[in-house]
Amino acid sequence: MAVNRKKGATKKMKRQELYVQLISELANYLLHGNPKKMVISLHMEADGFHIAAIDDRPRTDSEIAEIEHSLMIQQRPELASYYGTMVGHDLLGTARLEMIGWQIKGVKLERIPEGGIMINLWIGSEGFDPKMFTLEQRT
Amino acid sequence: MVQGTKTLKVFAVTVMLVLLLAGIIDGDVGPAVQGFIRLQVTPARLVSDFVAVEGVGATLFNVAAVGFLGYFFLLLNGLEITGAALAALFTMMGFAFFGKTLFNCIPIMAGVSLSALIVKKKPRDYALIAMFGTAMGPLITFLAFEVGVKPVFALPGSFLIGLGIGIILPPIAIAMLRLHQGYNLYNVGLTAGFVGLFTASISHAAGADILPLSMWGTEREPLLIAIVPAIVLIAVVCIVAENPGHGHSNIAQAGRDMLKIMTMSGRLPSDFSDFVSSKGALLNASIIGLLFWIFMVALGAPLNGPVLGGLFTLIGFAFFGKHPKNVFPVVLGIIAAIFVFGKSILAPGPLLAILFGTALAPLAGEFGPVIGFVAGFLHLVIVDRTGVWHGGMDLYNNGFAAGLTATLIVSIIDWYKSSKSD
């Protein structure tokens, strides 16, 4: 019983660490654009979570395509487990969205009426069911 | 499989087959195979030029064998041939000209895979650390054949120590990334140097100092001179063949993609084939390889094992962080330091610093050419000393020195940026 509780606590701690790292890297990216407004929200589910980040900086189509490309890079376990450990830690220099891209199950970008963008990220474990988050599965 | 990945796979396999073929056409296959076997038991510490020790044929067999080991390791782990994988493959092959052998690579790769299993990950998660981690190979050869223990104990003992080194490499490699924040492309060089400090110190405490070797060939073998141009030719053919019938437009597209690559900092992890295109990355590798090859030929440098190792590593990392724009200021800084301190540009240390010091390219890419120049200058100063610290056990001595240099520079920039008031 005590062992299970300890395992559960470790898992929770690891999850929290991941939230912090991903949010830090995302915030680092958005703040590089000097927005006047930035909102980041976290929605937790049993086997995954959803991060939504909004800013008010207008972006061109090619900038949005670039963000999408970085975030939609295929899952790369050999890079994620090694270089991906820098996510949200080493913030000197430009933010590296691709390190977030290696960890996520889904991404959706949309312009918001105020002029900025909204980045939606879905993250989950192996058993993660993206349907819970009403997002089509990434291919 | 994506078209770009397929092209990179064809490129890697063709290069390895050409190296094998070059080993066969060099001369008698029999003596070359015997030489290849002897290389497995030859001291591999820095600097052991395998071409000077066993000749061209044996060395090329060793390079191809180590390359295929890396390639099958990637396949076994279900990984695609990407820019990062090519950087690891070419680094393994490059150092097989002067230190890596099948014998000393396998225990470390097995150890790193075991490390992944210990923390309930898959071996593929640490595949890159396993491949780059073979930098510690000389330690295995040293323990197996140089300390004078009976083979019945020395062989299994060296294998077990290799496993142990492999097990501890991932946590240290991950911690080392934090020091330089991805601005030293040869992170495992810093890791292996750090581990090497301890192994050399233990050896010193036991009364057996490990001293670096100095086997440096000065010949220029025609076959070895032709290797880099041959690789460039293979790369260009791969670019043209990616979309058959549109050779000209493929080259034009590769040129445009390479320009895009040159806008990137190259900071770890920058997989140019993923971020831009495999065509652009192949052209970047061709141009980097050719430029440095011409530079070496023009300087009158010997195209021996270590120099070829440097050129191979440059080509590999041209898929994963290096491009002419971020490499140039660093090289200029190294050359300036060579002249300021009155060193010979053709001496092994400075020559290898020019080739391998380009690990600092992301500093120039992110913070500009002046910082790149300063980094190159400082790198030459420190790399002269670091080899002795680990007794030549870390084949990536320049990676070790570059890690220290990058940590120094990044710390200062980080402090300045975070402390100055707006």
Please state the overall shape of chain B, judged from the principal axes of the Cα atoms.
globular
- Helical stretch tally of chain A: 4
What kind of assembly state do the chains in view correspond to? heterodimer
What is the architecture of chain A at the second tier of CATH? 2-Layer Sandwich
Tally the helices of chain B. 19
Average pLDDT number of chain B: 94
Number of domains of chain B: 2
CA radius of gyration of chain B is 20 Å
Largest sheet of chain B: none
Instruction: Report the uncertain regions of chain B.
Output: none
Q: Major sheet of chain A: size, sense and barrel closure?
A: 4 strands, antiparallel
- Class by alpha and beta content of chain A: alpha+beta
Largest interface: A-B, 22 and 35 residues
**Unreliable residue runs of chain A:** 135-139
The count of DSSP E runs of length 2 or more, i.e. the number of strands of chain A, is 4
Summarize the structure.
The complex is a heterodimer of chains A (about 140) and B (about 425). Chain A has about 140 residues and is of the alpha+beta class.
Summarize the helices and strands and which ones pair or pack:
The complex is a heterodimer of chains A (139) and B (422).
Chain A: H1 2-32, E1 38-45, E2 48-55, H2 61-71, H3 77-80, H4 97-101, E3 106-111, E4 117-124
Antiparallel strand pairs in A: 1-2, 2-4, 3-4
Chain B: H1 3-25, H2 29-39, H3 50-76, H4 83-95, H5 102-118, H6 127-132, H7 137-145, H8 151-180, H9 187-205, H10 222-241, H11 247-261, H12 272-275, H13 278-299, H14 305-317, H15 324-340, H16 348-356, H17 361-367, H18 369-389, H19 397-419
